[in-house]
Amino acid sequence: MTQISGVHVSGADGELGASIVKELLEMQILYPRLPNFPVYAGVHHENEQSSTNALVVKVDPVSDPDSAIHALKQVSKLLLLIDPLSGEVTRKDVLAFAKGYINAAKQANIKHIVFPTPFSKLDTPYSPPLTPIDDDNEERTNVMRSYREQFEAIESMLRESFSQSEITILRYPGVLNQHLLYFASYIKKNSKMPLIDNSYMTFECCDINDVVRASCHILVSPIQRHCGKEYKITGPNLLTTDEIAIKASLGLKREINVEFMPIKQLKNVLMETTPDKEEVAYLLELWGLQGYLGTARKVQVTRDLEIITGSTGKSLREFFENSYDAFTSSQTDR
């Protein structure tokens, strides 16, 4: 089986990318039987330093394509991570960033590309609806493509540039746990959880730590094990809004209710947490990932995380228990 000569993680200057780099290095220490391979953290700025022993390299696939080619010639695997929450990638340069890396990977003869995406396929009847649109958003007058559209275009570029046996798609829709932290102050103050205004929605749910774990297990495995496959990292069951409120209440040890909001109000709540319009735009798209089932019963989603890692993921209740302080002020502690 083809072994790993090195792994490059793009977008390593964001929280998700940095966590994946750190976990890759720790796995080599915890599991001595794993092959010892270098881990390269691709960042946007030379002064970005990893807290780990990763090899930090500045890569600008848009303005300096040669920097990407040079970086990728040293590895056999690429984690093509595009994280708008890193503050470095915006809607206007998502496609250019991805295209630069894809072209470089082709020239560097990369053997395996892992592409994590937060978007599910739009298949009926159980898939998410289209991205919610704020009709009053001035940026929409520029007909700027949504993040969903661009991530789908990146998938298409990958399939055009590489054979199916060289690609692994890792979908992680419903990173509800991570994004709830953006509403921590609101939940502290009101004991209410703001959600998109539709009580009939059901939610895919996964924890960002499980995304890190799945990504790393794929990257440290022999190439043939996961190439050509498509995974979906979510909990095995869809959650109703009532179930989300119950799990939050149990985890935080006080009653938490759901507050349904139109998208403009939800946007305003987010803007109080982060003034970055690009982050807000991205988060609003992810918060549109609920699957509408109407009166149909809930269905099982996936157990791909267990297939990849051999164990289940963190539940929403566990997330709230572990993040108790973030969602609880001194006035509400018990």
From TrEMBL:
<dbReference type="InterPro" id="IPR008030">
    <property type="entry name" value="NmrA-like"/>
</dbReference>
<dbReference type="Pfam" id="PF05368">
    <property type="entry name" value="NmrA"/>
</dbReference>
<dbReference type="InterPro" id="IPR051604">
    <property type="entry name" value="Ergot_Alk_Oxidoreductase"/>
</dbReference>
<feature type="domain" description="NmrA-like">
    <location>
        <begin position="7"/>
        <end position="295"/>
    </location>
</feature>
<dbReference type="InterPro" id="IPR036291">
    <property type="entry name" value="NAD(P)-bd_dom_sf"/>
</dbReference>
<protein>
    <submittedName>
        <fullName>SDR family oxidoreductase</fullName>
    </submittedName>
</protein>
